[in-house]
Amino acid sequence: AAAAAAPVDVVPAAMATENGSSLSVAIQGCDFLEQHGIPAKLQHLLKEISDKKPKDPLQYLAEGLLSAAPVPAASGPPQSPFPHDLKRRAEISARAKRAATVELSSEGTMCCKGERRFPVARHDTALVLIDMQTDFLEPTGRVGQHYSETSCRAGMEGCRRLLAAARRVGLTIAHSRSHRYGADVRDDLVGTSDEGYELHPDLRARPGEIVVDKWTFGAFASTPLEEELRARGVERILLCGVLTNVCVFATASQAVDRFFRVCLIEDACAAFQSEWHDMALRLINEPQAKKGHNAQFGLYFGEISTCDEVERCFGELAPLARNQEVWKKRKVTNGAVEAQISLKAAMPHSCTLPLQHTALVMIDLQKDFLDPKGFGACLGNDVTPCTAILPACEAILTAWRKCGGTVVHTLEAHLPDLSDCPEAKHTGPRAPPAGKRIGEVLSPEMGRILVRNEPGNGLMPGLQAVEGEKVVHKPGKGAFYNTDLHDYLQGRDITHLIFTGVTTEVCVQTSMREANDRGYECVLLEDCTASYFPSFKDGTLQQVRAQGGIVGWTVVSTELLAALPLQK
User: Fold this and answer.
1) If DSSP codes are grouped into helix, strand and coil, which group holds residue 173?
2) CA geometry: angle at 546 spanning 540 and 551, to 5°?
3) How many Å apart are CA 65 and CA 53, to the nearest integer?
4) Would you give the DSSP letter of residue 187?
5) Span 450-478, pLDDT tens digits
6) Helix runs in 338-418, H state only
7) pLDDT tens-digit readout, 485-495
8) Is 379 helix (H, G, I), strand (E, B) or coil?
């Protein structure tokens, strides 16, 4: 325990006020406060309060102290009041500089409006189709019924042609589905088999293609689309879909703000009125072609080309074996892409994992639960058993990255407005006491409890995610509930999961059982998971491997390290 600090006493010190009475304040027992002139400033402010008698004396005092604080000299760009913005600012700044200085490789060049060009390469170009849903395209749809005599279907054939060309050469393909219908946000349609909400039967996504569900007009603002594209190395986007003047336009704007280069394919887009379509094309393209903005292609706000040009450009290229290409970039060589991990000492019996189809899942290795000043500790838990696993977790993460494996990090994290936090969890009879509840400020060092991007909601040192790794903000105990994790894993053909993290009996076990119910084969690393209560961990390990492995296997991390191909 820290030694007790010397008491700080407030004792009288006479000071005359306007009515002749004596006002007294002095501070003894703390040289630090004296050195910074705090007693003198307090005395001056208290005299002002006595003389002026403001309506809210405490607010007057607080504002006076704030105005007395020294203003630091400005250095660099203006600082955001939100600490998490600083990292984002640095990332965007780096991308902006890269866009201005780095010339992307090219396998072909599409001719674009205004005698401009759009270079493309299969490995970093994606086709993004916006909202090609039955509800918009068919006269029986929820929206289409109000525009049955319009040209909204005009882009469908173009989208079919683009999909065929993109699939043939192995482009990354992404689809968005909108559950925003005008002013209505139809959350009830997401995750259902509703035929109107689903992509049109002629334009359905295939396994491995990205599908995002959005409630904003643009496809980036409310979805993990940027993360999905970055993970696949995408730098350039061919954009099509409906409606040209609404969701396509918004997506183009959001894409260039993220420094993706955009080319809109005009005959694969449509609007409810042809003049709206034409006007949107002008607004997207004409600024790009004006003097002063024409040095960089596809960034202000996009080039305009046609389906004929896409087919011509990709027509002579051989199909790209995209999965193997991505795997090679991840350094999975060692003889064969389909490397196998044999865990002979696993319990209840040996198992084999296909490296290419296996992901390492790091559950909730965050300061909230592991820092001695975090949320878990403030509830009276001893974090020592949990922090003891960190070296083993770091060793596994480092080795897995060297093998090029897929990595997923989860954080138990709620939106700042707590709209995803059930009342029972927040203030119900089982919730922590006031002062220690979700969303409340635990301390200046930790910030708000279990809230996204707060200091305590960060991953522990040595275990932070790097670019290309998936970070899942989960509002519940399980990693699959109310997240896009399943879609993310399916998009990468992941069939096997290796689990680490805390706490074993709560979030780790819940996530593992959720995965098991979704058909994933699961392994739990015994020395990379922990509980505040060691007996709870032991009981969970026994449950996982009971009855022939009813939930999965367990094994120590050293066995996995020895089995990894690049570790031999």
Assistant:
1) strand
2) 70
3) 17
4) G
5) 999 899 999 999 999 988 889 999 999 99
6) 367-370, 375-378, 384-387, 390-402
7) 998 898 888 99
8) coil
Helix (H) or strand (E) holding 214: strand 210-214
477 belongs to the catalytic site? no
Instruction: Please spell the DSSP secondary structure of 307-332, one letter per residue.
Output: HHHHHHHHHTSPPP-HHHHHHHHTT-
Q: CB atoms < 10 A from the CB of 335, how many?
A: 8
Nearest to 133 by CA among 162, 182, 184, 176: 176
Q: What is the 3-state secondary structure (H, E, C) of 446-500?
A: CEECCECCCHHHCECCCCCCCCCCEEEEECCCCCCCCCCHHHHHHHCCCCEEEEE
Considering the candidates 113, 474, 477, 537, report the single residue annotated as catalytic. Answer: 474
Catalytic annotation present for 351:
no
The full 3-state SS of 91-146, as one line of letters, equals HHHHHHHHHHHCCCCCCEEEEECCCEEEEECHHHEEEEEECCEHHHHCCCCCCHHH
Task: Dump pLDDT digits (tens) for 321-367.
Answer: 444 333 333 333 333 346 889 999 999 999 999 998 999 999 999 99
Task: Tell me the two tokens of residue 197.
Answer: 């909400």
Catalytic site includes residue 522:
no
Half-sphere exposure of 255 (CA within 13 A, CB side): 33
Between strands 447-448 and 470-474, the pairing is unpaired
- Residues 39, 227: Cα–Cα separation, whole Å: 52
pTM of the model: 0.48
Q: Is 5 exposed, middle or buried (0-12, 13-18, 19+ CB in 10 A)?
A: exposed
20: alpha, beta or left, given left = phi > 0 and alpha = psi -120 to 50?
A: left
Candidates 307, 313, 393, 507; catalytic one = 507
**Residues whose CB falls within 8 Å of the CB of residue 47, separated by 6 or more in sequence, listed in order:** 15, 17, 23
Structure confidence at residue 285 as a pLDDT band (50, 70, 90):
confident
Q: Give Cα 315 to chain centroid, integer Å.
A: 36
Grouping H, G, I as helix, E, B as strand and the rest as coil, residue 303 is: strand
With CA atoms as reference, report the closest residue to 184 among 195, 174, 197: 197
The answer to whether the beta carbons of residues 463 and 390 sit under 8 Å apart is: yes
Task: State the catalytic residue, choosing from 364, 368, 484, 527.
Answer: 364
- Nearest CA to 460 out of 489, 507, 502 is that of 502
